[in-house]
Design brief:
Layout lengths: L1 E3 L2 H15 L8 E3 L5 H9 L6 E2 L9 H19 L3 E5 L3 H12 L3 E5 L14 H11 L2 E4 L2 H9 L7 E3 L3 H9 L9 H4 L7 E6 L8 H16 L3 E6 L4 H11 L5 E4 L4 H10 L2 E4 L4 H7 L4 E3 L7 H6 L2 E3 L4 H13 L1 H8 L10 H14 L1
Parallel strand pairs: 1-2, 2-3, 4-5, 5-6, 6-7, 8-9, 8-11, 9-10, 11-12, 12-13
Helix pairs in contact: 1-2, 1-7, 1-16, 3-4, 4-5, 9-10, 9-14
Protein name: UDP-N-acetylglucosamine 2-epimerase (non-hydrolyzing)
Keywords: Isomerase
GO molecular function: UDP-N-acetylglucosamine 2-epimerase activity
Length: 367
Amino acid sequence: MTVFGTRPEAIKMAPLIKELEKNDLIQPIVCVTAQHREMLDMVLNLFNIIPDYDLNIMEHGQTIVDITNRVISGVDKVIKKERPDMVLVHGDTTTTFAAALAAFYNKVQVGHVEAGLRSGNIYSPYPEEMNRKLTGTIANLHFAPTVGNKENLLREGVEEKRIIVTGNTVIDALLYVVKKEYKFNDKILDGIDFENKKVILLTTHRRENWGQPMVNIFEAVKEIVLHNQDVEVIFPMHRNPKIRELAKERLGNVGRIYLIEPLDYEPFVNLINKCYLVMTDSGGIQEEAPSLGKPVLVLRTETERPEAVKAGTVKVVGVKKEVIVQMINQLLTDKETYEKMANAVNPYGDGQASKRILNALLKYFSN
């Protein structure tokens, strides 16, 4: 049984679900919590996945405690009815940890997809770092995207035989939907000259960046645009009202900065493919953009994806305005620096992660 509830989880679990569906030895059961409702549905429709169970837990103003309580209760009922051999969860959301805990309470085995990521700070990203650590404590099988993730798990005492290095399923999903001649169904995006302009894609939403850090990010973006006539910025605004209000206040009247609504996964990854570089505090984009040859500047003080930093595809620039401006200017003006980041080898795999997970499951249960 696969359990997930947010858009990022759905994107990364979708190719695995499609792989499980093709195998006669496996009977997949899909349970979604809908921790995110609309954004989750976009991905389910794109990959043609119809959940067997939809807990539909999302409520306006929900807290982490609310989500945890409703996921544990809902998943517990599904597990008691279906008695799966294993529950597969993904990554680091509250759905991930709560579903793993519900499985543990029912003495059902847990497989953790995208296991072993660590930032080293339990409050950054919050609550994701603790969610993945606690899920890792419960899991029976750990599907680690990279060797570095495997080493994190070994240091925490996980048996090596329970860790399988697979690559990241996000690359599987990415290759499924990116198209060279993609056309946007959006007037703003269709009107942008991606060939002759240096288009920067900005995404920011993390709790630790709320307040002054996000003000710094927006002010840095404004300065870059005002001093570079060939630069345009696209910011798909997160649905959180605090983020949207601040973005409109700081960037709403600046020319060549486009504040747009959140995009479905398909247009979003095709936008990454067309842009010049990416600024983000998201985790998944640090894996997606390098696969498409796009430099990534991480708007955080640390990352749980050090492989990308080591490979040279990603740079952690923090949230100080001056540093952000300096790094963007370097990528805009120094062709050698830009090419070095754009052409670095992506450490997150070859698009075959889902097949490796399937084969590992078959081997595990055959033993």
